[in-house]
Amino acid sequence: MAARPPLRFITCGSVDDGKSTLIGRLLYESRHVLEDQAKALEADSRQYGTRGGGLDLALLVDGLQAEREQGITIDVAYRTFATEARRYTVADTPGHDQYTRNMATGASTADLAVLLVDARKGLLVQTRRHARIVAMMGIRHVVLAVNKMDLVAFHPRVFARIEAAFRDFADAFSFSSLQAIPVCALEGDNLFTRGARMPWYEGPTLMAHLDGVEAGRTVAGAPFRLPVQGVNRPDSHFRGFQGRVAQGMVREGDRVRVVPSGATTRIREILVGDRKAPQAEAGESITLLLADEVDVGRGDLLAAAEAPPQAADQFEARLLWFSEHPLAAGRPYLVKLHTREVSGSVTAIKHRLDVNTGQALAAKTLDLNDVGLVTLALQEPVAFEPYGTCRTLGGFILVDRYTGETAGAGMIDFALRRASNIHWQALEVGKEARARIKHQQPLCLWFTGLSGSGKSTIASLLEKRLHAEGRHTFILDGDNIRHGLNRDLGFTEADRVENLRRIAEVAKLMTDAGLIVLVSFISPYRSERRMARELFPEGEFLEVFVDAPLEACEGRDPKGLYAKARRGELPNFTGLDSRYEAPEHPDIHLHTDRDPVEACVDQILQRVQA
Fold it and tell me: CB neighbours of 509 closer than 8 A, spacing ≥ 6?
């Protein structure tokens, strides 16, 4: 068994810097290549290799067929090996710009980063990009591996120039350790043994340095934190709370607090696997039995009673965007923070970070691989620690609620205290009383469809019919609202998201006033319509899809908008150069290309009056 704690590290750098070759050499020389793997490697080297049939160690890592055919790495490949000193897990991360998200995924659990640089090329834009992301993801130990020294005749000045340039660049990141090593991964120079062709280098080999690095990020004396992953209750006599210790140490008899409920109790027993243990520390997966019957479930946090964590519902955070679909402020997502899942959204993008220069740039959206400083708002408070203190409790991901895609990964810097000091003001007269005096049930009818589909026409006639019946109504029309409340918004995707967020909140206030509100907006995105629906109680929101083919809408073109868009005078026009996501399961589906307006209104009234 290794004498030192295991070490997780990543290799990163630009394309063809030799990351896969370096890892392959580490696996090969540490004797972690089985006989059948070695035979397969020989065959693969003849078919796919880049060494004229000679052993191509990069193929030990480049496991995907696409990688082998193209000679590049497009996925994060994890491998394990061991020396006499410790066990290692290494992640080979892609070098291409468009795969920065994969590199960040590998960095999120690593203790150290090996940044490879081609000695012929020196520091590249991608080298600086990766170094900045490594620092942002909290990695404190860095090795600058200047590779392919054989192609520059092992010249010491080449190495010294690259090392000096990188140290000057990395000063701003305050890495705990930074070791530069000249290597030739192809032949193994300065990996396990000192390279005889570089006698001028007096530092450690790569593996000697890795063997000595202090792994882990636990702050000495940090208070105990355990995010509860599950409750194990095989019978009425056993109730254990399972999870991985994120921070600190816990012992039998310690007082702990349940967050967010605030209940306190003591640790009665600690199990590591099925073995009873007197204590457990960060990194161990355990089961805790408590002295009292307290309410604890998945997503709760067990913490040292005398030093509970903070809880908040708004944060300033750094966010790395993974999705090909841009982030727009206000769009709702599922936020996963340790074992907790809660609805939330990015309410503001303060700036986008140029990861190549470090410059803060104004931005309304974040695109694929962008990094931004944002404000994150959650629907309810959650326990957390700043990412710099504890990765597990400070790192989060955003999940697209419609597609299930992991859209972004973020790091909490601090809570916005003001948000926790704002509370709902209790009112004497409620929605039910306001609706009762109007003799009606509050309702939001949300009309969506392409421009020219007939939304405003149908909503107007419907309001006349409801008014004639003595109903209290109000129409929120897209054009009218943009003359006042939303006059500051344009027609970019980010502005459209904000436009609908404001309208949904206004519509909610109107139903609270007891009204029947008719919202007539194109509202092209399913996620925003879902966000609007979730503001209302069950049965108080009806999505009305005013459906007509694009050709029919363009043929009507009552405002001449399609003609202007075709001439290029209206960029981002829905249906032409901006997408419309049709409802998949609308509450009411109208077909205005075949049914007259009166019939469409009758269809809505039948549903409303039912």
Answer: none
Average pLDDT, the chain: 86
Pick from 230, 223, 241, 338: nearest CA to 281: 223
The amino acid at residue 535 is L
Asked about 343 being catalytic, the answer comes back as no
pLDDT, tens digit, 9 for 90 and up, residues 32-61: 554 555 555 555 555 555 555 555 555 555
Burial of 225 (0-12, 13-18, 19+ CB in 10 A): buried
Residue located via tokens 């004639």 = 468
| 459 vs 483: CA distance, rounded Å | 19
Domain boundaries, the chain: 7-212, 225-304, 310-418, 431-609
Looking at domain 7-212, which of 3.30.310.50, 1.10.4160.10, 2.40.50.140, 3.40.50.300 is its CATH number? 3.40.50.300
| Single pTM value for the model | 0.72
Q: Which residue has the tokens 């990688």?
A: 67
Q: Which CATH class is domain 310-418?
A: mainly beta
Q: Which two tokens stand for residue 362?
A: 């104004």
Rounded Cα–Cα distance for residues 13 and 131 (Å): 9
Q: Is 351 exposed, middle or buried (0-12, 13-18, 19+ CB in 10 A)?
A: middle
Q: Is domain 225-304 classified as CATH 3.50.30.50? A: no
pLDDT at 274: 85
φ/ψ (deg, to 5) at 229: -90, -30
CATH placement of domain 431-609: 3.40.50.300
Per-residue pLDDT of 328-344, as tens digits, reads 888 889 999 999 999 99
In sequence order, the 6+-apart residues with CB closer than 8 A to the CB of 166 are 115, 117, 123, 127, 131, 144, 180
Whether 310-418 and 431-609 share one fold: the answer is no
Choose the catalytic residue: 323, 520, 523, 527.
Answer: 523
